[in-house]
Design brief:
By secondary structure, the protein is an alpha+beta fold. 45% of the residues lie in helices and 13% in strands. The chain has a single domain, classed as NADH Oxidase, CATH 3.40.109.10. It is globular. The site of flavin mononucleotide has 13 residues, from β3.
Length: 218
């Protein structure tokens, strides 16, 4: 596949076969990550390969997406949070570029992958993974063999609506208008994460996750 084809065909995959992923493929994917551009070439990213089912379950029990425990492997990407450029959060941007390289290389190698930010509060992740204070998690990448071929997920906006010349002249996106809803959503999210893990595990996680997986069919 040429690059544009990989870019077009990559989908976020959330349903996997139980087969494990060979270590050399995981390493190839991480190698692709480190060839991404990084602010000042600091390459301040680290990758934590997660293949221990107990750790995956702990992430889910602490409020992470239930799909995390169904993927044979996960890679938690963390970044150096000691940037001078707080305004543009350049090391977060570098880590995001690395993640995109991971997703594209996974697609190229015939693997399924998904970028996951539906994660427990950072403090909890720090504890689980013993992350030092100078690094912070950005996202978790699911990895495995696809259960089935994904369906295409339409892009929401035609190109003409996204492109501006010289000054911003697009319409504002709908979400920006609804600040009250966004505020309530943020409070609900805080409340959800403040609930005891046992309660979430028993009553809420499955419901929340089912809604999510249904929304994104792949
Ligand atoms: C920053 C970021 C966070 C995301 N977090 C999640 C997540 O927590 N759970 C999930 O199922 N998908 C997550 N996704 C994947 C998006 O849902 C997905 O990219 C989008 O629906 C478009 O589908 P596609 O990737 O198949 O084109 C995330 C993607 C990005 C870039």
């Amino acid at each position: 596949m040429d690059l544009m084809e990989v870019i077009r065909k990559r989908r976020s995959i959330r349903r996997f076969k139980p087969d494990s992923v060979p270590e050399d493929l995981i390493k190839k994917i991480i190698e692709a990550a480190v060839w991404a551009p990084s602010a000042c070439n600091i390459q301040g990213w680290r990758f934590i390969i997660v293949d221990d089912q107990k750790i995956k379950e702990k992430i889910v029990d602490d409020g992470g997406a239930v799909i995390i425990k169904n993927a044979p492997v996960g890679i938690l990407v963390i970044y150096d949070n000691q940037t001078k450029n707080i305004e543009y959060q350049d090391h977060i941007q570098s880590a995001a570029a690395a993640i995109q390289n991971m997703l594209l290389s996974a697609a190229c190698l015939g693997l399924g992958a998904s970028w996951i930010c539906d994660l427990p509060p950072m403090g909890k992740l720090r504890k689980i993974f013993k992350i030092p204070p100078t690094f912070s998690p950005i996202a978790y990448v699911l990895l495995g063999y696809k259960e089935r071929e994904p369906i295409e997920i339409a892009r929401l906006h035609p190109l003409e609506k996204l492109i501006n010349y010289n000054v911003f002249s697009s319409e504002f996106p709908q979400e920006n208008k609804n600040t009250a809803r966004l505020f309530l959503y943020r409070i609900a999210r805080k409340f959800y994460f403040s609930l005891p893990s046992k309660f979430k595990k028993r009553f809420l996680n499955k419901f929340v996750d089912k809604k999510f997986v249904k929304k994104f069919d792949n």
